[in-house]
Design a protein that fits this description.
With 688 residues, the chain is mainly beta. It contains seven helices and 38 strands. The strands form six sheets. The chain has a 22-stranded antiparallel barrel. The chain has a five-stranded mixed beta sheet with strand order 3-9-10-7-8. Helix 1 runs antiparallel to helix 2. Belongs to the TonB-dependent receptor family.
Length: 688
């Protein structure tokens, strides 16, 4: 009872003072240990991935373009958000400006609903396209996997660009063997956006029961842009929490329950990807924006003797509410929107001779609505979309060298818009995939895959309809919009060897080339223009979602990693070209990118240097989207003294050269927000 009262008191402390909550949480549940650093033995510990086949396998053996970022990489890069680390991966980009609410991931040039976003297996969907619907502090994550390319054969609608799967941390990830309690807290300062952060976690393991409670708060202000200037207004704060429970009924059967919540309040333009470049300073629509996201997940998992799941089931519910308070000074009415997602699934994996067969069923239902001034918002029409599918996959070993993996999934989806604004849409789709892998030496593996992905048009893409001279943009409906389909052929190779530059060093490489044909690619097109009236000035554009009948995509991805004692180095390169085969126009495609990370460890010190070299995007046929090339360099330092291993001090300087650049990302051609300039960050952490 005494312990329960302490937990209840911590919730009240968070509302009263964020620093008090951090201290209270740490002291109430202290007496644990210093958690092991993720990636501490990166040269010897093997990385496990799940997203490529929905079954666990070694990353070095994965015959797919999959990458993984662990919790240590997020911490080492002083990540403000998940994009600060994930953008180091090939053909993974985050743009939309430096505001957290506006940043949106792109995988192989696909973004928004063309990328499957998962947190602990639950889909994160949103009615809006202005930013990704994932509001989570990297400190709450145990890691992230990114599967690039066609993935509908396993994940259903939306996997054209791939899957971004985030996994939240659990008590079992932080507690060392023999330890039953632990806690840690952090205080952070970020001069790039006048930010402060306070975070705390407590975790326990008692018999078959384990629990984790994490709380955090962050405040921020105007962002200093590269080369000078400020991105303002940008004043806000956010609080979030994670409660994660687990119970092991017996060694092979485990129950889990988690709840995650995020709340944000920020005074900024209602489009977080915009700034004063959209018009005169007084014409930029500024409102207090509120975000409220929650996720509840319950699951059960049965495992075999080696720990691999044989049967798993999950149910989840997510909610995303966004709203903007009225601003009478700019004649801006209050607005709101919500997205509710309810979903779940069951998967069975069984072994039969040389076969590992996985099959299951899953699905979800999205409901959305939006209001502006108390009236329905025609850009986000009310309605619902339901998607359900069955899938099967066979990992078939042919001898010791060959692995053949056929997979297929059949989905049915239905879309309904309220009020009779359009007819219901119902359709089915079969998504096949075949992968063949050959390990022709202990170090080298070659693989080839052919797969298909699809995405059903969203409610907003099909039915949005806004005609208003006093609006920043207008939108035209397209009831004839068809699902988009991507068929990809990919060839790749993996390498894992030692003794390249010194005895005992380790080199790992992963590379692939791919070619895709896309039927009915859904893209935003400009179909008209109008003269804006108050509160805006200038010429406004009319947008419509349209199908591009015959798009072609091709690209290259390369990853190289080296480990040798205290030293490590990583390189990632990507290239993508997308064109309309009918008109020969170049479509949306992020520019060529090379990212280099160099790390060194000496006694209690860790240093990491990162360089991002991005070429100019001068091919896009939409001239407004073109961007200049740039180079950005960052330096990070971490110190954990041997005399006080509970203490950890981290500092970093991002954009050392204070370069002024714009990330090529948003499909909105008027989004030209300058990224953050030189910025110093520091974090003080203590483990109890």
């Amino acid at each position: 009872m005494e312990q329960n009262n302490s937990v209840a008191a911590m919730g009240a402390a968070l509302r009263l003072h964020p620093l008090a909550s951090s201290v209270a949480l740490a002291l109430a549940l202290g007496g644990g240990h210093a958690p092991a650093r993720a990636g501490e033995d990166a040269g010897t510990v093997e990385t496990i991935v799940v997203s490529a086949t929905r079954t666990p396998q070694l990353l070095k053996d994965a015959a797919a373009p999959v990458s993984k970022i662990d919790a240590g990489a997020f911490a080492e890069r002083q990540a403000r958000g998940i994009g600060d680390a994930l953008q180091d991966l090939p053909n993974v980009d985050f743009g939309g400006g430096p505001r957290g609410a506006g940043r949106q991931p792109t995988l192989r040039g696909y973004s928004g609903k063309e990328v499957t976003l998962l947190v602990d297996g639950a889909r994160m969907n949103s009615a809006s396209g202005l930013g990704a619907p994932i509001f989570i502090d990297p400190w709450l994550l145990s890691g992230a996997e990114v599967l690039r390319g066609a993935s509908s054969a396993l994940y259903g609608s939306g996997g054209l660009g791939g899957v971004l799967a985030l996994n939240t941390v659990a008590a079992r990830d932080l507690l060392a063997p023999g330890r039953n309690w632990g806690a840690d807290a952090r205080l952070g300062r970020d001069l790039g956006e006048a930010g402060r952060s306070q975070q705390a976690r407590a975790y326990t393991r008692q018999g078959g029961f384990d629990a984790l409670l994490a709380l955090g708060r962050r405040d921020w202000g105007a962002i200093r842009e590269g080369g000078g200037g400020e991105l303002a207004p940008n004043d806000g704060h956010a609080g979030q929490g994670l409660l994660k429970l687990g119970y092991t009924l017996r060694p092979d059967l485990r129950l889990t329950l988690s709840h995650r919540a995020y709340q944000e309040s920020a005074l900024r333009p209602n489009n977080p990807q915009s700034d004063a470049s959209l018009g005169q300073l007084g014409a930029v629509p500024v409102q207090r924006n509120l975000i409220d996201q929650s996720q509840t997940t319950i699951g059960i998992e049965h495992t075999e003797a080696g720990g691999a799941p044989t049967l798993s089931a999950q149910l989840y519910r997510t909610r995303l509410d966004t709203s903007a308070e009225a601003n009478p000074a700019q004649s801006l009415a209050a607005s709101s929107s919500f997205t509710r997602t309810v979903g779940g699934g069951v998967q069975r994996t069984t072994r039969w001779g040389r076969h590992r067969l996985s099959y299951g069923i899953d699905g979800y239902r999205d409901e959305q609505d939006a209001r502006n001034g108390g009236q329905p918002n025609p850009v986000t029409p009310p309605g619902r979309q339901t998607v359900a599918g069955v899938f099967v996959q066979d990992e078939w070993r042919l001898g010791d060298a060959w692995l053949l993996t056929p997979a297929a999934r059949y989905d049915r989806y239905s879309t309904h818009v309220d009020g009779g604004a359009g007819p219901d849409a119902r359709q089915g789709h079969l998504s096949p995939k075949l992968t063949a892998a050959l390990r022709f030496t202990p170090q080298w593996q070659a693989w080839a895959s052919a797969g298909e992905s699809y995405r059903a048009p969203s409610l907003s893409e099909t039915y949005m309809n806004l005609s208003c001279t006093g609006c920043l943009f207008n939108f035209a409906p397209n009831p004839a919009l068809r699902p988009e389909t991507d068929r990809t052929l990919e060839l790749g190779a993996n390498y894992d060897g030692r003794g390249w530059f010194a005895a005992g060093d380790r080199v790992q490489m992963k590379g692939s080339v791919f070619y895709s044909t896309v039927d009915d690619l859904i893209a935003t097109a400009v179909v008209g223009a109008y003269q804006r009236s108050f509160p805006f000035k200038g010429r406004g554009l009319v947008f419509q979602s349209q199908n591009k009948s015959n798009a072609r995509r091709q690209g290259v991805e390369l990853e190289w990693g080296w480990r040798n004692g205290a030293w490590r180095a990583d390189l990632a390169y990507s290239r993508l070209r997308v064109r309309d085969a009918d008109t020969d126009q170049n479509l949306f495609a992020p520019p060529d990118k090379l990212v280099a990370n160099l790390g060194w460890k000496w006694q209690a010190w860790r240093l990491n240097w990162r360089s991002r070299l991005v070429a100019a995007q001068s091919r896009d046929s939409t001239l407004e989207r073109r961007t200049a090339g740039y180079a950005s360099h960052d330096l990070f330092v971490n110190w954990r003294p041997d005399a006080a291993p509970q203490l950890e001090l981290s500092a970093g300087i991002s954009n050392l050269g204070d370069h002024r650049y714009i990330v090529y990302q948003s499909e909105n051609p008027t989004s030209r927000v300058v990224e953050m300039g030189r910025a110093l960050q520091a974090t003080l952490g203590w483990t109890f």
